[in-house]
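sorry for the late reply, my laptop died twice this morning and i had to redo everyting from scratch. anyway the thing you sent over, i finally got around to it. pasting the sequence first so we're on the same page, its 238 residues, then the predicted structure underneath. double check i copied it right bc i was rushing
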Amino acid sequence: MPGHKILITRQPEFSVEFINKLSYNRLYPYILPMIKTVPHSINIRETMYDFVIVTSKNACNYIQPFMDKLSYSRAIAVGKKTKQCMEMVGFRDVEVPETFSQKGIISYLSGEDIKGKRFFLPGAEERPEELIRFLSEKGSIVDAPTLYTTEKICYQQDYITDFLNQIHIDAVTFLSPSAAKGFFSQVTFSKIKKVPLFVSIGPTTHDYLISIGIESIYPKTDFSVDGVVELLVSIFKS
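ok and here's the structure:
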């Protein structure tokens, strides 16, 4: 296992836990962020919602200033890390589906009568539409404000390709489709000496990679940083 080098494409400020867990497991982390988030200026109305659904830690962090305006009956987090973030900013009795993904939330709600129920889904400007589409088709009222925009970080030509070659990266991790999009829009495959393993946090990111012709692997059930680290350890253990 010693010597295997893992590239993190997430922002450094959100990667401390990831770095620590890789290092603890004798994997070598490197950071090359592919995206940054820019908050939107919005005005959230004081409305009573039946459900608040938060699908990322970014959305959780950006909703914090509006907590005093938010009234709700039930709160759902996409996963355990998002739940922890929600509890820190003041949400109570946060529910988490068994599968940590938007598909998991859809499955979690599929047995409930949600026609006419009011949902609040804060998030990024670009996000998967499957959950919003599911709720709308069930007759729910969906309020999905844009709290932030995800922007690509641009590097000099061939910088990322040269980085992969010089550091001899063994695996590149993607925790969102946006990070994967930023990475592959700036990499020249024909110049990569050794193509690394590509690891997605879950099926949504994996499906994006498949759509652009890139194979990746992802954890079977735990779609989180813990799941990614466990998967990497299982692959690179000696």
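The chain has a mean pLDDT of 93.
thats about all i looked at so far, will dig more tmrw
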